[in-house]
Amino acid sequence: MIRMKNIKYLLFALIGILAVTACSDDKENPIYNSASASAPTLTALSNAYTLAQTDADKAFATFTYTAANWGLKLATSYTLQTSLTEDFAKTYDLGTSTDVSIPVVTKDINSILINKGIQPGSPTKMYFRLLANATGVSGNVSNISTLTSATISTQVTPYDMDINYPKVYIIGDFNGWDHTKDLFLYSFESNTIYSGLIDFGSKASNGFKITGIAGWQDNLNWGSGSTTITTPEASSIQLVAGGNSGNIQNFSNEFYNFTYDTSSLVLKKNFSFNTFSIIGDAVGGWDTTNDVIMNYDATKQRFSVDVSFSDGNMKFRADKDWALNWGGSNGVLKVGGDNISVKAGKYRVIVDLNNPDKITYQLISLD
Fold this sequence. Notes:
single chain, mainly beta, ten-stranded antiparallel beta sheet, eight-stranded antiparallel beta sheet, 2 helices
């Protein structure tokens, strides 16, 4: 028979064992408490940076920060982000590290600004933040939320540069069907939508095709579904893939801005013309005798010309006519936009019509 006194001893022993076990479990499987966690802190940057082409491959800055504190032992992965708006509506990842520093090169910062249509030489505010994510623990980390640092900012002035956008190739009679002389449509948002301004010379009507590589491959080779496009100056065409697809034909102007969607295989004509010029009292007057014809640079697919302005206003237009004209300010053009005010002097004028949603101009002083 077990005596009552012995039962008491057994109960006390069991309670002791459970207490030790509980303590051991807490040590081996600590519980995450978000109230004990603190986000990393980014070190402040200088107030302003002026970027230069000569420093493209050099460091813009090495971002340093304090380590995230999770309140328990956790491995951490840090991601540095930037945005042109304080609410980080559109973010760009600049690097990831398990260390407490992330180096960023100048050309990566410059590309973001130029890609978003910021004009070279225009000071622009950029915002930066750091995301900390738990990657290892004695336990499960899947439910542990990201820690986000406070935002820091600085003013950055970019330099002019070409962006290497994803592209599809335009090949046809205009370039002798030679893939070494292709022109391109570009995906400015890195998606399935490609746009660009193509100079067909006098051979637009002779036909062209689109390819996804600098060569011929059935699933990356798009043309019309028949030998001849019967609708002249078609506003849109449903293309098909494959080596047996017909050439895209029945266009007659020299310059075309097309948009092509590789998901729907629809080619859309945005606008076309034969000449592109500057007009206005800054170049002598608003009649057709004063149009300054701009030259197309096939290597950059844009127009340029050196011109001497007097104090006044100017606009851009197609075919010396007002049916299709562009005006604007601060380097951005809109169809039918306002007159552009200029100061007297000699300038190199550059207009990029490739992106129909973001047509831009530059006035570079040559004095």
